[in-house]
Amino acid sequence: MSGDTKKLPSAGNPAPSETDVYAIHGADPEVLAYAMAKYSRSALSMKESLSEISSQRAEQFLNTFYFQYGHRSIADLAHIPFAIERLSLLAAIELVDEQRWDGQERSTRYQDFRRSGWFTPDMGGRTAEFTEAIEALFLAYQRLSSEMLEALKRAIPRPEEMKQEGYERTLKARAFDVARYLLPLATNTSLGQIVNARTLETQVSRLLTSPFAEVRHIAEKLRRAATEPAWNVHHAMAQVLCEEIGSVDGECGTRLTDVLMRPVATAPTLVKYASPNPYLAESRKELAAAAAELMAGQSIDPSPVVDLLDDAEPLEVELATSLLYPNCHYSYRQLRKNVAALPAVRRDELIALGAKHRGRHDELLRSFSAGHGFRFDILMDIGGFRDMHRHRRCVQLLQGYTDLHGYDEPVCPGQPTLAEAGLEAEYRAAMDAAFAAYRSLRDSGVPESEQSAQYVLPLGTRCRSMFKMDFAQALYISELRSGVAGHFSYRRVAWEMYKAVAERHPALATHFRIEDVNQPVDLLKR
Q: Can you give the residue range of the structural domain that contains 249?
């Protein structure tokens, strides 16, 4: 019998089959999530499941397994597109601060933000002062962008082979790269996002807990947009089609109208219970108080643009330091020095503080993501940070906006400086005036004045953030962000990240495909 293949009886042996792969279109997000979840509980195909599922059955299923049993992974299967338009840059940064987020925002490089307008928070009786500060920044932005464009034209002649339109467009983008430093955080922007329902739920809950009234209002609108009928891109076309068919066959037209024009709520079940998160709110308040107590009377030590932290401290020290870091304005290194000097029992108390108010379904605070091999404490302008903020394959701890770190000036090798363009004095005057307005509004005593005043801060203001990642992500960010087409602000940060890794791990430096950001670039290439 050797060499023979013994065949099983045909009875009960399934017929040979081929893998079936097909895309799905037209199913409501929650219905589709239910159908995909059924794979774990049913032998039906996706087509069979979708054919038998109604929205009512999907809601019943989700109410049972999502809310009662805590099977939150089901919500990962419902993806929902949103447009969020006319929100401030400050609110946009808050909104996109999700590790599981996909979207796109208006670019300060390719669009003139003079036409955007701005958001005005509740300033009590100080609205006129706020408006004056914002208008001054926009006037300076307009002048800086136009004057820098002229300086670029003087410095960089148009090649014969390059069309005038492309030449103007390229240099205008370079001028906007400089002028954006003066855009206040109040500036209006727009963005689109495609997120799953679980991310949306945590996003709405987090935004409802924000200290900024604008952000809380946007959270309410997001929740409403997910639970009310969505805008249908095919509505107008479907209406015409239904009317045409209805004129020929009234019954058919009526049925078609019911199908094509029915209102669809994208996630009426999965986000209906999203509410402010007490865990975030109480932890933020108590950790801020703990940081203030620990660092009482200490000034902020000078720090480099990029500080690659060593990995020598115990995990308990990293956790306690990371919990305090987003709730103060000190560098990680300075904060860690104080944490490391504490008795072990006090460090344990700080860590316990970070989990004290955690609810049944709350994920641990982001600060508990510890143990990464590469941790970069970065101090850079807000505008450049917004680009770095898009990297999701790392842990980011963000500090609040303040004038304590000063501001940056736009410097690009090979490009006319502010001084060469005759704009340095005006730029500094505009930034100094904005900082003075910020301090005046912050100390005005108006409710929420500390939050509202931050809208005046320009994108050139330095902010601090911690990025934790593995080697692959450190290499990826350094390579991507050092490219000649990038903005000079984050190019410099990417270069400093590379240098820090290369100094600590010389053998790994050869794996970086890095661009030396100190070399002048061809400003006509993007």
A: 231-260
